[in-house]
C-alpha cells in the first residue's frame, strides 16, 4: 500500500509531476474551531490536494496570562491556577507546583502525604491517558472507544471527588502536603478501581489499538526520530515513543517513586517505525498498566500519619532564590521555574508546559503527510490547549 | 438456470400498483392520465416510506450507537425509549432558519440537496418490496439502481462547490474519487447473483429464491461458496458507496469538520440526511433481494393466495433489509476510519481484482453445472 | 539535589577549562530549612536589601552574552546536554539594568540537569538565539521575546506566539503599563 509518509523521495517525484501541470496549493485553516484540534489550536495548512506541503501553528486563543497572574497573587493563591493549565491532569499540576515551592521553602511533605500524592498523580495519569487514547480514537474516526475510556474515567473522577470535593480542578496537593487526609474508605475505593481497571484495560486494546485499521492509520505516520525528539525538547510519551528511555519518575526520583517497582515503557516500533503515532499511543496504553501497578504498591506500603508539614501554613514565605522543578506529567515534563525574593509573592513564575514543547515539533511532521494524517499526528501529540497557551 | 422455478412464483408479470390503479380509476382514461396518477401515487408512497425510514433509521442509529457505547441513546422524547426523538428532530430541522451563505453559489447550493434526494427516491422505483409490490419491474432493475444512485455524487459535488468552503470542497472531491472508484467493485460484485439468476430484474431474483419452502436463498444455494464471499465484496463496496464508516471520508468529522454538508442547516441538511439513510436502505435492500431471498422466508408459500401473503412478504423484505442496515451501523460504531489513499488502494488493488476472480469462478460454476446436469 | 550540585560543579569546571567565563552560583541556605528560618529571613528582609542568603538550584552565570551560542554548542556537543528544557527571561526588578536569560538543560544520557543564566541589558535588549543549536528554543524564545521585549538575533520566525500580533508592550516586564483598551475592548 502506497504510504504517503514513508518515502520522501517518492513524494518529491510526485510533486514535480504536479508542478508541471501548474497546480496551486490550497491554504486551509484547521481550527481554531475544528473537531480534531482538541480545543482552540489553529493550524494553517497548505495542501496540494490531499497532501500537505506546509503547516504553521497559531497559538494564544486560550492565553490566560498564568505567568503574569503568578506575579500578582501569593504563593498559595496561585495553586488553583495550576489546575487550569492542563485541566486533564490537575493533580499532577498541583504536585509539580507544590514540589517547586517546597524546594524554595526547604520542606518535604510527610510520608503519608507523599504516598497519597503518588496515588493521586498516577490515578490522574490513568484518567488523562484514558482521555488521550479515547479522543485519539475519535481523531482516527472511531467514536466508541472514547465512551469506554470515559466509563472508567468517571470512576476516577468519583475517587477524586471523594477526596477533595472537585472533579476536575482539585487544588488538593499543596505546598507542604495535602489539603486534608483521605476520608475513610477512600483507599478501599482506589483498590477496587485498580482491580477493575486491570480487567477493563483489554477492552480498549482490543477495540481500538489492536484494530487493523487503527494500525494502518497510525503505523509509520508522523515519525519522530530520537534526534528530533531530543532536539525539540519533547518529553513524556512523545519522547518515550521515539525510543528514548527517559522517565523522571525513575531517573530523577522524587516522592516515593524510588520505593516502587515499575517499568518505563519505550516505543520500539511495535507496528512500524520507532517514533510513529502507534508507538506514542502504545506508550500511553501501557503506562496506564504501570500506573495501576504503582498505585497497588502504594496501597500496600502506605501507613497512617500526618499529611501536612507542620511549618507550612496558608501564608507561604519561601526563602529567596530560584528553583526549577520538573516532574513527569501525563503529557511530559511540567516544569516550574520560580524566582523568589523572600516575600509572599513570586518574582517570576515560569511554567514550562509539555504540550507547548511537544506541539512545536508537530508542525514539522506535517508536510508530506496526507490531510487525514494531520488529525492523526496532532492527536498523537496529545496536547491540551490550556497548557500550550497558559 | 439451476433451480427449477416453483410454478406459483414463476415469472411475475406486470406490477401490483398499476393493476391496482387500473382497477380503481374509471375506465376510458387516456394513457397519460393513468401514467401521471401512477407516478404521483408511487412518488407519494416512496417519499412517505423514505421519510418514515429515515426517521426510524436515525432513531435506530442513535440507539445502536448508544448501546454499543455503553449508554442508552435518546430516552426522553416520547414515552418508550425516546421513540419520538427523530420526529422531534425532524420538526426542529423543518422550522430552523434556512441559511444560505452570502458567498455561496446560490443556485448550486440550493439545488444540491434536491438532486441528492431525488436520485435516492428514483432508485427506489426498481426495488421490489414483495412479489409484484414494485413500482416499475424493470428488466434492467439492478443496472437502473446502480446508474441512478451514482448521480448522487453530482449532488454532493454541487454541494461541496456551492458552499464556497474549502472543507466542503475537500469532502466533495473525496466523494467523487471514492464513489467513482467503488462503482466498479460494486457493479462487479452484483454480477455473481446476476449470473446465477440469469436476470437483471430484482423481482425475478426474488421469485427465483422462493423454492425450498422459502429458503432457497442465493447464500444457501449450490453456489453458496461464491455467494458468501461475493456478498462480503458487495457489502464492503456498498459501505463505500453510501459513505458509511469506515469509508465516511466525504464527511469525516475529525478531518473535514462535516465534509460536503458543513454549511448546510435546517431542511436542506435533513435532505442530505434522508439521502444517507435512503442509500443505506437501498443498498441493504439490493443485498437482501439478491443474496438473502428477497421477501421469502420459510412458510411464506403456505400462505399463498391468502390476504396475509403480501403484507408478510413486504414485512419480511423490509425486516431483512433493516437487519443489513443495522450491520452497517454496527460497523460504523466499531471501526476507525480509513485514509483516502488506503480507500483507493482497497478499491482498486483488492476489491476489483477479487470481484473479477469471483466472476470467473461464478461463470465456471455455471458452466460446470450446465455440463454436469445439462440444465 | 546532590546530582544538581555535582552537575553544576562539573559543568563549571569544564566550561572554565574551555575558556568560557562562567561563574558557579550555589545556594548558601541548607536544603531543608531549620525551624524558624522563615521568620529570621523575613526579619532580615526588612532590614537589609537585598538578602544574600538563598535556596534553590545552583546555576552558572555567563557574563558575556555574546558567547551564549558557542557555550550552548559546547554544552550539547562536549558535555552531553542534548535537551534544552526551557528558555525564558526574568525581569527581577524594574530598577535592574539587566534582564536574566535563563536556560534549563537536561542530559538524558547522564541524567543531569543544568541551569544557565545570562544577563541581557535592558538598554540593548538583544541576545543570540540558540535555535541553531537547540531547535526547542524556537517557541520559548518567541514567548520570551513578546513577554520581555528581548530580541533574539537569528531567530527563524520571530512572530508573537501567545499574544496577538499587534499587542503593544511586554507584559512580563516589571515596568509594564496595562493598556486602557485593546481594539475598543476595555482592559481595566
Give the CA-CA distance, first to last residue of chain A: 42 Å
Q: How would you describe the oligomerization state of the chains in this entry?
A: heterotrimer
- Averaging pLDDT over every residue of chain A, what do you get? 86
The percentage helix of chain B is 55-70%
The secondary structure category of chain B is: mainly alpha
For the biggest β-sheet of chain A, the strand order reads 1-2-3
Instruction: Please work out how many helical segments of chain B DSSP would assign.
Output: 15
Provide the gyration radius of chain B in Å.
21 Å
Provide the CATH top-level class of chain A: Mainly Alpha
CATH architecture designation of chain A: Orthogonal Bundle
pLDDT averaged over residues of chain B:
82
Assign the CATH topology of chain A: Cytochrome-c3 Hydrogenase, chain B
**Total number of beta strands of chain A:** 8
Report the β-strand fraction of chain A as a percent range: 5-15%
* SSE string of chain A: HEEEHHHHHEEHHHHHHEEEHHH
Order of helices and strands of chain B: HHHHHHHHHHHHHHH
Q: What would you say this structure looks like, in words?
A:
The complex is a heterotrimer of chains A (390), B (375) and C (188). By secondary structure, chain A is an alpha+beta fold. Chain A is 48% helix and 12% strand. Chain A has a single domain (64-389), classed as Orthogonal Bundle (Cytochrome-c3 Hydrogenase, chain B). A 3-stranded antiparallel sheet of chain A has the order 1-2-3. In chain A, β6 and β7 (332-340) form a beta hairpin. The longest helix of chain A has 30 residues, at 111-140. The two termini of chain A are 42 Å apart. Chain B has one domain. Chain B starts with 15 loop residues before the first helix and ends with a helix. In chain B, α4 runs antiparallel to α5 and α7 runs parallel beside α15 (340-373). Chain B is mostly helical and 375 residues long. Chain B contains 15 helices and no strands. Helix content of chain C is 26%, strand content 26%. Chain C has 188 residues and is α/β, with parallel strands linked by helices. Chain C has one domain (2-186): NADH:ubiquinone oxidoreductase Nqo5 subunit (Beta Polymerase, domain 2, 2-Layer Sandwich), CATH 3.30.460. In chain C, a hairpin with a 2-residue loop joins β9 (181-182) and β10. Chains in contact: A-B, A-C. Chains A and C meet through α4, β6, β7, β8 and α13 of A and α2, β2, β4 and α4 of C. β6 (321-329) of chain A pairs parallel with β2 of chain C.
Amino acid at each position: 500500500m502506497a504510504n504517503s509518509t514513508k518515502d520522501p523521495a517518492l513524494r518529491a517525484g510526485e510533486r514535480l509531476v504536479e508542478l508541471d501541470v501548474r497546480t496551486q496549493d490550497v491554504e486551509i485553516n484547521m481550527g481554531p474551531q475544528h473537531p480534531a484540534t482538541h480545543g482552540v489550536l489553529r493550524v494553517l495548512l497548505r495542501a496540494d490536494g490531499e497532501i500537505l506541503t506546509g503547516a504553521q501553528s497559531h497559538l494564544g486563543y486560550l492565553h490566560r496570562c498564568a505567568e503574569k497572574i503568578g506575579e500578582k497573587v501569593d504563593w498559595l493563591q496561585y495553586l488553583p491556577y495550576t489546575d487550569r493549565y492542563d485541566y486533564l491532569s490537575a493533580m499532577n499540576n498541583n504536585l509539580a507546583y507544590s514540589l517547586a515551592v517546597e524546594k524554595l521553602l526547604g520542606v518535604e511533605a510527610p510520608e503519608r502525604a507523599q504516598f497519597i500524592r503518588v496515588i493521586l498523580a498516577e490515578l490522574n495519569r490513568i484518567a488523562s491517558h484514558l482521555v488521550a487514547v479515547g479522543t485519539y480514537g475519535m481523531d482516527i474516526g472511531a467514536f466508541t472507544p472514547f465512551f469506554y475510556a470515559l466509563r472508567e474515567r468517571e470512576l476516577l473522577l468519583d475517587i477524586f471527588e471523594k477526596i477533595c470535593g472537585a472533579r476536575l480542578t482539585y487544588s488538593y496537593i499543596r505546598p507542604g502536603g495535602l489539603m486534608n487526609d483521605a476520608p475513610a474508605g477512600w483507599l478501599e475505593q482506589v483498590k477496587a478501581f485498580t482491580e477493575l481497571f486491570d480487567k477493563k484495560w483489554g477492552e480498549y486494546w482490543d477495540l481500538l489499538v489492536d484494530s487493523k485499521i487503527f494500525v494502518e492509520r497510525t503505523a509509520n505516520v508522523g515519525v519522530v526520530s530520537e534526534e528530533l525528539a531530543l532536539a525539540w525538547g519533547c518529553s513524556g510519551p512523545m519522547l518515550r515513543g521515539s525510543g528514548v528511555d527517559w522517565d523522571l519518575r525513575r531517573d530523577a526520583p522524587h516522592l516515593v517513586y524510588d520505593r516502587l517497582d515499575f517499568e518505563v515503557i519505550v516505543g520500539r516500533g511495535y507496528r512500524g517505525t520507532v517514533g510513529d503515532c502507534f508507538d506514542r499511543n502504545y506508550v500511553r496504553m501501557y503506562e496506564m498498566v504501570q500506573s495501576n501497578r504503582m498505585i497497588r504498591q502504594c496501597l500496600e506500603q502506605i501507613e497512617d500519619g500526618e499529611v501536612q508539614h507542620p511549618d507550612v501554613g496558608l501564608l507561604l514565605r519561601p526563602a529567596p532564590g530560584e528553583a526549577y522543578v520538573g516532574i513527569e506529567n501525563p503529557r511530559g515534563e511540567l516544569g516550574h521555574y520560580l524566582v523568589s525574593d523572600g516575600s509572599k509573592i513570586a518574582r517570576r513564575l515560569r511554567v514550562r508546559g509539555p504540550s507547548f514543547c511537544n506541539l512545536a515539533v508537530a508542525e514539522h511532521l506535517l508536510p508530506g503527510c496526507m490531510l487525514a494524517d494531520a488529525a492523526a499526528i496532532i492527536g498523537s501529540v496529545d496536547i491540551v490547549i490550556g497548557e500550550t497557551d497558559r | 438456470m439451476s433451480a427449477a422455478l416453483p410454478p406459483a412464483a414463476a415469472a411475475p408479470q406486470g406490477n401490483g400498483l398499476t393493476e391496482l390503479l387500473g382497477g380503481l380509476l374509471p375506465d376510458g382514461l387516456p394513457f397519460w392520465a393513468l401514467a401521471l396518477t401512477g407516478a404521483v401515487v408511487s412518488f407519494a408512497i416512496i417519499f412517505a416510506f423514505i421519510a418514515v425510514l429515515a426517521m426510524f433509521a436515525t432513531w435506530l442509529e442513535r440507539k445502536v450507537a448508544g448501546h454499543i457505547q455503553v449508554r442508552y441513546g435518546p430516552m426522553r422524547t416520547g414515552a418508550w425509549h425516546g421513540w419520538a426523538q427523530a420526529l422531534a428532530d425532524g420538526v426542529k430541522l423543518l422550522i430552523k432558519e434556512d441559511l444560505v451563505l452570502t458567498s455561496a453559489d446560490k443556485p448550486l447550493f440550493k439545488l444540491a440537496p434536491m438532486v441528492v434526494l431525488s436520485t435516492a427516491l428514483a432508485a427506489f422505483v426498481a426495488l421490489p418490496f414483495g412479489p409484484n409490490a414494485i413500482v416499475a419491474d424493470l428488466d434492467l432493475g439492478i443496472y437502473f439502481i446502480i446508474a441512478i444512485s451514482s448521480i448522487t455524487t453530482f449532488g454532493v459535488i454541487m454541494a461541496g462547490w456551492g458552499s464556497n468552503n474549502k472543507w466542503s470542497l475537500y469532502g466533495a472531491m473525496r466523494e467523487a474519487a471514492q464513489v467513482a472508484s467503488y462503482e466498479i467493485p460494486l457493479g462487479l460484485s452484483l454480477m455473481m447473483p446476476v449470473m446465477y439468476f440469469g436476470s437483471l430484474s430484482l423481482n425475478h431474483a426474488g421469485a427465483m429464491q422462493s423454492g425450498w419452502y422459502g429458503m432457497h436463498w442465493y447464500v444457501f444455494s449450490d453456489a453458496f461458496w461464491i455467494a458468501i464471499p461475493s456478498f462480503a465484496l458487495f457489502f464492503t463496496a456498498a459501505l463505500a458507496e453510501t459513505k458509511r464508516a469506515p469509508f465516511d471520508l466525504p464527511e469525516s468529522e475529525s478531518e473535514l469538520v462535516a465534509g460536503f454538508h458543513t454549511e448546510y442547516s435546517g431542511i436542506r441538511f435533513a435532505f442530505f440526511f434522508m439521502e444517507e439513510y435512503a442509500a443505506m436502505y437501498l443498498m441493504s435492500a439490493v443485498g437482501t433481494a439478491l443474496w438473502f431471498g428477497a421477501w421469502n422466508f420459510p412458510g411464506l408459500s403456505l400462505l399463498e393466495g391468502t390476504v396475509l401473503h403480501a403484507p408478510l412478504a413486504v414485512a419480511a423484505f423490509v425486516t431483512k433489509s433493516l437487519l443489513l442496515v443495522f450491520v452497517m451501523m454496527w460497523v460504523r460504531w466499531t471501526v476507525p476510519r480509513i485514509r483516502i489513499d488506503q480507500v483507493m488502494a482497497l478499491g482498486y488493488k483488492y476489491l476489483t481484482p477479487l470481484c473479477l476472480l469471483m466472476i470467473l469462478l461464478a461463470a465456471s460454476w455455471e458452466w460446470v453445472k450446465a455440463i454436469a446436469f445439462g440444465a | 539535589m546532590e546530582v544538581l550540585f555535582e552537575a553544576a560543579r562539573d559543568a563549571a569546571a569544564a566550561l572554565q577549562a574551555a575558556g568560557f567565563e562562567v561563574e558557579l552560583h550555589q545556594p548558601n541556605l541548607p536544603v531543608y530549612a531549620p525551624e524558624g528560618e522563615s521568620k529570621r529571613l523575613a526579619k532580615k528582609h526588612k532590614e537589609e536589601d537585598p538578602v544574600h542568603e538563598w535556596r534553590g538550584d545552583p546555576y552558572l552565570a555567563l557574563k558575556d552574552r555574546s558567547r551564549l551560542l558557542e557555550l550552548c554548542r559546547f554544552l550539547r556537543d562536549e558535555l552531553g546536554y542534548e535537551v534544552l528544557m526551557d528558555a525564558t527571561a526574568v525581569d527581577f526588578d524594574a530598577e535592574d539594568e539587566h534582564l536574566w536569560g535563563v536556560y534549563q538543560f537536561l542530559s538524558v544520557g547522564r541524567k543531569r540537569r543544568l541551569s544557565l543564566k545570562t544577563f541581557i541589558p535592558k538598554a540593548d535588549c538583544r541576545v543570540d538565539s540558540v535555535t541553531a543549536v537547540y531547535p526547542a528554543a524556537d517557541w520559548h524564545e518567541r514567548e520570551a521575546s513578546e513577554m520581555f521585549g528581548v530580541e533574539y538575533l537569528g531567530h527563524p520566525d520571530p512572530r508573537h506566539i501567545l499574544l496577538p500580533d499587534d499587542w503593544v508592550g511586554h507584559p512580563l516586564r516589571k515596568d509594564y503599563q496595562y493598556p486602557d483598551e485593546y481594539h475598543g475592548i476595555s482592559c481595566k
